[in-house]
């Protein structure tokens, strides 16, 4: 079958996305089944946009892309919610979203890019309603930030990796993205874009699940974390290159206090 000139899906467990058509500067990663818009092809490389990461741009090897098979809006999808899963020779990582064909006792039958089927234990996935066109109820909306905190806190000591999106390595904005993605919410991929596009709030309004950003007037936004606790001075969870990976830090830590730029809230539309 001739490859689509304009669209495809990631056909491998995980792919590094590079700034240029050379494996030098990783800018993000994409999971199996992620949609890719193809802008250009050159010597075995594809320049792409990742719609699920806010049309994030980069380059991938052409060989990692499969034909873009349309999935009906009404078809149920599930997301992998444990760090890694191996089943039937298949390796998937947390955050991977795939269409579910049917349930079978304690297992689910999934459709992979290219049309093959795979069977996973039901316990390793949960229904995923992300990128849905309909707004959700207010009660469900209020649960999402707390769910995101729980997801982030399940990933302690994961090593820091620039552009990383998995338990093998993750960066600061990638941790925020993954934690909310598991709840069906797609954030901007970069910390600077998260700061620019999410709702500003005052420090007195801060709740668990809100994001706090760090940097300087000269450098702009350079780091992001998530409020995980309001007790005492409060804590935030973040992926830190300085501290070696995913950790919890006191909000009153002097190093971060002097670099604090502000707070933002993730707003999910609610049904009227």
Automatic annotation (TrEMBL):
GO biological process: one example: proteolysis
GO molecular function, one term: cysteine-type peptidase activity
Keywords: Hydrolase, Protease, Thiol protease
Pfam families: NLPC_P60, SH3_16
Stored InterPro entries: NLP_P60_dom, Papain-like_cys_pep_sf, Peptidase_C40, SH3_16
NlpC/P60 domain sequence ranges: 142-267
PANTHER family: MUREIN DD-ENDOPEPTIDASE MEPH-RELATED (PTHR47053:SF1)
Protein name in UniProt: NlpC/P60 family protein
């Amino acid at each position: 079958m001739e490859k689509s000139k304009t669209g495809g899906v990631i056909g491998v467990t995980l792919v590094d996305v590079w700034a240029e058509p050379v494996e030098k500067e990783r800018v993000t990663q994409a999971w199996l089944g992620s949609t890719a818009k193809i802008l250009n092809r050159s010597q075995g490389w594809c320049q792409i946009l990742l719609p699920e990461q806010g049309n994030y741009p980069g380059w991938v090897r052409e060989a990692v892309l499969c034909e873009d098979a349309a999935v009906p809006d009404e078809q149920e999808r599930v997301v992998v919610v444990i760090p890694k899963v191996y089943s039937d020779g298949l390796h998937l990582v947390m955050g991977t979203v795939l269409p579910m064909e049917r349930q079978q006792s304690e297992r689910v039958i999934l459709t992979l890019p290219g049309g093959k089927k795979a069977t996973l234990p039901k316990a390793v996935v949960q229904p995923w309603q992300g990128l849905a066109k309909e707004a959700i109820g207010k009660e469900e909306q209020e649960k999402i930030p707390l769910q995101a905190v729980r997801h982030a806190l399940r990933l302690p000591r994961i090593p820091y990796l620039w552009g990383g999106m998995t338990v093998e390595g993750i960066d600061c904005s990638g941790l925020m993205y993954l934690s909310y993605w598991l709840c069906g919410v797609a954030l901007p991929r970069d910390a600077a874009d998260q700061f620019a596009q999410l709702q500003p709030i005052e420090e007195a309004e801060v709740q668990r699940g809100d994001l706090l950003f760090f940097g300087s007037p000269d450098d702009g936004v350079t780091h992001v974390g998530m409020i995980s606790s309001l007790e005492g001075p409060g804590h935030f969870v973040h992926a830190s290159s300085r501290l070696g990976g995913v950790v919890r830090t006191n909000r009153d830590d002097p190093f971060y206090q002097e670099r604090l730029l502000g707070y933002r809230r993730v707003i999910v539309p609610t049904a009227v």
